[in-house]
Amino acid sequence: MAQSNCTQVTEFSLAGFTEDPVTQGNLFLLFLLTYLVTIVGNLGIIILIRASPHLHSPMYYLLGNLAFVDFCFSTIVTPKMLVDLMSEKKIIAYAGCVAQVFLFQLFGITEYFLLAAMAYDRYMAICHPLLYPLVMSPKCCFQLVTGSYLMGLTNGVGQTISMSTLSFCSSSTIDLFFCDISPLISLSTSNTTLSRIILTTAASLFGVSSSLVVLLSYMAIIATILSINSAEGKRKAFSTCTSHLTTVSISYGASFFTYLHPSSRGADKWAVVLYTVVTPMLNPLIYSLRNKEVKEAFRRLLKIK
C-alpha cells in the first residue's frame, strides 16, 4: 500500500567521484587518454587479426572477439562518465539507465565466457596438440563465441527484468559513476527479493561456471607443462598462455573484488574503475607487448603499408 502513492522517478543522479572542479578536470584528461588508448588498442587488434593471414587461427579469432567486447564494454561507461565530469548536473534518464544496465551486464558476462573459451583453447593446444586442429575447428570456434554472446544476452535480459521490478520513489542518486544493478537494488524503495535472487543466481551460474572452466583448464595445463622434461619445452609451452593468464588474472581479480566487496563507496569506486575502464585498455596492450606473433604481424603490416 505504501507503494501506491509512489511517483516513479524519470531520471537518476550519478554521484561521480568528486565535486572539486580541478580534480574533475584532471580525471577528465586521465579517463579521456585511457579511453583513446582503449579504442585504438582494441580496434587495432581487430584490424591486425583480419589483415594478417597467419593470425587466422582459433586463438586469435577468440582474441578478436574479446577486443570487440572490450571496445563495447568501455564505450558503455566511459563516454557518459567523461560528459558528467564536465557537467554540473550528472543526470541519466531512466531509459538510459535501463539500457546501460542491459549492455553492461551483456558484455560483462560475454567477456567472462570468451576468456573461458580462450582458456579451453590453450588447454587443447598444450594438452592435446594432435587433436587441436580437429576440436578447435572453425565451426567449434563459432559455437564458442556465439555461446558466449548468448550467455551475456541471457544475463542482460535477466538483470533488465530485475530492474523493471524495482520502484524508486525517494532518493534517486546512484552512488557510482554509471548505472549498475547492485547500487540500484540498494536504492530501490520496493521489495528487492526477486532482484537479489536474480543477481545471486546470475553470479553463481555465469561467474562460477566460467571461472571453473578457466581454473580446470589451467590446472591441466600446469600438470602437462610440469611433465615436460626439457626446460626449453616448458618455457615454450608456458609462453603460449602467459598473455591470456595475465588477462584472466586482471579481469577476474578486478571484477571479483568489485562484486564481492560489501559496498561501492570511497576507494571501492576505484576498484570499479579498474574493472570497467582500465582492464579494457590493458587487454590489447598485454597481447601486443607480450605476444611475439602479434608483434611480428604488426611489423609485417607496416612493411606492406
Short summary:
The protein has 305 residues and is mainly alpha-helical.
What does this structure look like?
There is one protein chain. About 0% of the residues have low confidence. It is globular and about 70 Å long. It has eleven helices and three strands, in the order E-H-H-E-H-H-H-E-H-H-H-H-H-H. It has a three-stranded mixed sheet with strand order 2-1-3. The chain is mainly alpha-helical.
The general outline is globular
Give the fraction of residues assigned to helices: over 70%
How do the SSEs run, as a string of H and E? EHHEHHHEHHHHHH
Give the low-confidence spans: 262-267
Describe the sheet with the most strands.
Answer: 3 strands, mixed
Cα-to-Cα separation, first versus last residue = 69 Å
Strand content: under 5%
- Arrangement of strands in the largest sheet: 2-1-3
What oligomerization state is this entry in? single chain
What gyration radius follows from the Cα positions, in whole Å? Answer: 21 Å
Number of strands: 3
The average pLDDT score comes to: 84
- The DSSP helix count reads 11
Global structural class: mainly alpha
